[in-house]
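Colleagues,

Please find the record for the four-part complex below.
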Amino acid sequence: MPVDEKLEDVLYYLIDKTNKVARRYSQEAFVKAGYDITVDQWLVLKKIWDNKEINQVELATSLFKDTASITRILQILVRKKLVKKESKEGDRRHYLLSLTTKGEQFFKQVLGMVKSMRMQGVIDFSEAEKEQIKRLLTKMIKNLEE
Amino acid sequence: MPVDEKLEDVLYYLIDKTNKVARRYSQEAFVKAGYDITVDQWLVLKKIWDNKEINQVELATSLFKDTASITRILQILVRKKLVKKESKEGDRRHYLLSLTTKGEQFFKQVLGMVKSMRMQGVIDFSEAEKEQIKRLLTKMIKNLEE
DNA sequence: TTCTATTAATTGATATATCAACGATATAAA
DNA sequence: TTTATATCGTTGATATATCAATTAATAGAA
């Protein structure tokens, strides 16, 4: 019988837990506020807001998602009339993505809440601790990316 | 136009990225080694190995999963003949979960690789850094739970 | 210019997450 | 004992992740 440490002591498990707790916290806040949106949909909105002329491959890369996932999330956001896709002149393989007027209004309305959600996780962290956790996570990523 | 920090500077985003990188790293290692198993399926195996008489609700709680997800993951593990479900005498609402002989052999075979995967992420971390990152993540979880 | 290779996006299949509804059983209350 | 409530597990619906195959369009090579 091989002996092994408990799952609770495994760092990946702790990261997974933190990630889930943060996502659930954010999702519940959206629901409580009556915003019909998921965390992943919000991230896509945010990225389009920040990069008005982004295409789907760039969107996928920067959000660590598959282009297939992006296609489906965008279908939902277009259905909700928050995002619009327009063919690009010059290269008809891809689209220009942008927020609709409704999408921009929605984004601005939700952003304040999102900012306070971001703070909640580190509410009692010193500046040094905030830097430290980012530094260590970045270091882990480097160790795991070939 | 509200100004907002870049996604790359948001801590939740960095945690999400670390989590995905760690999962992909682990999943690729399983595939390369020819092990037909997902990360989530492995976690369920590990938990049953550690707790021979666990039921599905406890399994779900300890892995931060929904009981519906556990039902479906177990269906797959049973189909692969790695796990068996036996009715419990006394309370027929739930099952006793355990690894089959094949499941135990598989677990022992894979465990060595899993241990080295766990180390890879923190390969250049000092002991103090390992403690630090666990402490800070635990602190974040407390800030975001209930 | 024509053939080939690459790129952007979509779709299908399977695994997982989450919520809600449900069935079977067990426990507590009346 | 009957009734009400709580618990364990399953299933359906929708969203997302991943991989593979496919379409449409562009770019590069012959």
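The mean pLDDT of chain A is 93.

Comments are welcome before we finalize the supplementary table.
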